[in-house]
Design goal:
Strand content: 15-25%
Strand order of the largest sheet: 14-18-19-17-16-15
Shape: elongated
Distance between the termini: 59 Å
Number of helices: 24
């Protein structure tokens, strides 16, 4: 079988399952008793193992299999979840991710994972890594709770104990039955179904371990345990089950409920555990109570159909977008022809086509929109690791992960956000003892928030840490020559905070391996501005810092002001324009060999685009000048053009590989009349 055609699908789905494992491991750390989370992790790992084995990546499959063994121990209460165990599981997920990335880049997916495997083996044997293995503890405890019952068997909640008590009062026997299937059993779920049918004929199943769902999905090795109420003898129960083929061994034990109840009253811990387990298994139990043992015959697997989707390669969407752009250009030409011919029928047809193409444009743009969740998902794991390295307690709160952005923007914002989050945890959030001294909770809080506003998406990274020390920043800025002492003392708080974005600027005495205020923030600012966005910082000393990023919804379609420079047309992004103006010759001043104007009390430089782009002069210059005032952060400049055409939404096209790094031009667009207009990169014009 040619598996190469499935490779892309395998890589995509593997990444999704690994992300799901990462997310659920973080949840499990906060809720270590929640078996449902363990089952989710197990399901993802099991699917990944199956896919890897099918595709022939045996190393990936075998590591996942070993991880499954530990997860199985956790959900069967043989292993208690601890930070040390989760560290090892996280480590294995890192290995799996590296293997998948190796496959994605054309490699063989092989990796030396002997250390991780050795740790897993130690965990399974209870020997190890600071792991609180408890097989012996559980055994001794449970044996003291349930007389005559071996370790690793069932714990019961109040409801189950009541049902078992009532059954025994009515003359039924309460039995725990441990069933082992043969190693060569192929259809385990089918055997389980047959066994449950046998049990249904002679009594009622109260509980099963693993759960019924897990048994149906074959998420168990070869053994499972059921608790049965019946009037049949133990031998009769055993012999009936052994009649089912491929059953290796059956152990039937009668429960001593009185002893069990006495011991559970003494053990608050076990009561809590069983209550939580009850909450997770309640639906299954209620079903069992109402309708006897409809366990395996009940096929009500809750799989919400949800919305149907298909995977589409982003390159295909790019091709579709390019074709659509050609259609838009032809539409513009048809509009021009209809206007010239003055044909009402042609005009109506073109207008109808314009409406249809407008809807089509909206659909195509929406297809390219993806939730920022795809980027945000990687951060909880990063925060956990950083907090551990820095001996800090940090809680990351994510708000608005469903907010959508164009795929091209999504691909670019990951690194800037990593910089900001690392800065927040390293220099924003204080150590637990410092926070307690400041009368704060010892656990710091970092909030990552995304939301729509107009045609922009805002992403905020805020912390409740120490805030930015204005005086320290200003002192460092003066010492490093970023700002003069005279000018420095006239700066507002916000202007001082903006100094953090200066290249190479840092307030820390010793630059950290993790981050330093200023180290990397200039990179963040440049990246965001290259995306047509804007980043700002605000802070309150002792209360925290907030970095706010403003991004355009999409980079493909932007709103511009079309202008004429001599006979050429240029597009200036609206996001950078403050306003337009007409100024006379007498209003233009000169300062330091630079033409300037007084714009609302600010002296701003003028840049004549005719001279700057060396456009052939064909028009006679009069005494009035069209000015577009643009902004980059706090800095402003005036662009001198010959005339304004008007506002328009355009499709951004790159200049291609032959015209890379053209100064102050970020791309081009094709207008409706077929002309090409260059898009001015205003950020490059203002130093």
């Amino acid at each position: 079988m040619d598996k190469s055609q499935y490779l892309d699908m395998f890589i995509d789905e593997s990444k999704e399952h690994l992300q799901a494992v990462n997310d659920n491991l973080l949840k499990l750390e906060n809720e270590p008793e929640n078996v449902a989370i363990v089952n989710e992790i197990f399901r993802s790992a099991h699917t990944l193992k199956g896919m890897a084995a099918t595709m022939g990546y045996e190393d990936l499959a075998s590591l996942t299999h070993i991880m499954e063994n530990v997860l199985d121990g956790i959900r069967n209460h043989k292993i208690f979840v601890s930070t040390e165990i989760l560290d090892v599981v996280f480590e294995s997920v890192d290995d799996l991710e590296a293997m998948v990335m190796s496959i994605a880049s054309g490699g063989d997916g092989k990796r030396d994972v002997t250390k991780t495997v050795a740790k897993f083996e130690k965990i399974e044997k209870g020997e190890s890594v600071g792991v609180h293995m408890n097989q012996t503890e559980v055994a001794s405890t449970q044996e003291s709770i349930i007389s005559g019952i071996p370790a690793s068997l069932e714990l019961y909640d109040d409801f189950e104990v009541t049902v078992l008590s009532q059954a025994t009062e009515q003359g039924f026997n309460a039995n725990q039955i441990k069933i082992s299937l043969r190693e060569d059993c192929i259809l385990k779920a089918a055997r389980v179904y047959m066994i449950f049918q046998v049990l249904e004929q002679i009594g009622e199943v109260i509980k099963s371990t693993p759960t019924v769902d897990a048994l149906e999905e074959e998420n168990f090795d070869l053994e499972f345990t059921v608790t049965l109420i019946t009037k049949e003898t133990n031998d009769d129960v055993r012999n009936r089950i052994l009649k089912v083929s491929e059953v290796e061994k059956v152990a039937v034990i009668t429960l001593d409920l009185e002893s069990y109840k006495r011991k559970t009253i003494d053990s608050e811990v076990h009561i809590e555990e069983t209550k939580k387990e009850t909450a997770q298994q309640a639906p299954t139990k209620r079903q069992k109570q109402n309708n006897s043992v409809e366990t395996t015959s009940n096929k009500e697997k809750v799989h919400s159909p949800g919305s149907k989707t298909i995977r589409v390669n982003i390159e295909r969407l790019d091709i579709l977008m390019n074709l659509f752009e050609e259609l838009v250009i032809d539409r513009g030409r048809l509009e021009q022809i209809a206007s010239d011919l003055k044909s009402s029928e042609l005009t109506e047809t073109v207008e109808h086509m314009s409406r249809i193409s407008g809807d089509l444009q909206s659909i195509i743009l929406n297809m390219r929109m993806v939730p920022v969740e795809q980027v945000f998902n990687r951060f909880p794991r990063m925060i956990r690791a950083l907090a551990k390295d820095l001996n800090k307690k940090v809680n990351l709160e994510i708000i608005g992960a469903e907010t959508e952005l164009d795929r091209t923007v999504i691909d670019e914002i990951g690194d800037p956000l990593v910089h900001l989050l690392r800065n927040s945890i390293d220099h924003g959030v204080e150590k637990p003892e410092q926070r307690q001294n400041a009368e704060k909770s010892d656990e710091g809080k970092i909030t990552l928030k995304a939301y729509h506003s107009g045609n922009h998406v805002f992403i905020e990274v805020s912390d409740d840490g120490a805030g930015i020390n204005r005086d320290k920043v200003l002192k460092k800025a003066i010492e490093s020559g970023v700002v003069s002492e005279e000018n420095g003392h006239n700066l507002t708080d916000k202007q001082v905070y903006e100094l953090l974005f200066s290249s190479g600027f840092s307030t820390v005495d010793v630059i950290s391996d993790v981050s330093g205020r200023g180290v990397g923030l200039d990179v963040v600012k440049n990246k965001i501005e290259s995306l047509g966005g804007h980043v700002a910082v605000d802070s309150v000393l002792g209360e925290g810092t907030t970095f706010s990023i403003q991004l355009p919804l999409t980079l493909s379609i932007i709103s511009v002001m079309l202008v004429e420079v001599q006979k050429e047309k240029y597009a200036i992004p609206l996001s950078t324009i403050i306003e337009t103006a007409i100024v006379k010759d007498k209003d233009i001043l000169a300062a330091h060999n630079q033409k300037v104007i007084d714009f609302r009390g600010n002296i701003i430089p003028l840049i004549n685009l005719t001279d700057f782009f060396d456009v052939p002069k064909t028009l006679k210059q009069d005494s009035y000048h069209s000015i577009i005032v643009i902004r980059k952060g706090e800095k402003m400049a005036g662009l001198v053009v010959d005339s304004f055409i008007g506002q328009q939404e355009i499709v951004l096209k790159s200049l291609g590989n032959y015209l890379t790094n053209v100064f102050a031009i970020s791309g081009a667009t094709i207008l409706g009349d077929g002309q090409v207009a260059l898009i001015v990169d205003c950020n490059a014009l203002i130093k």
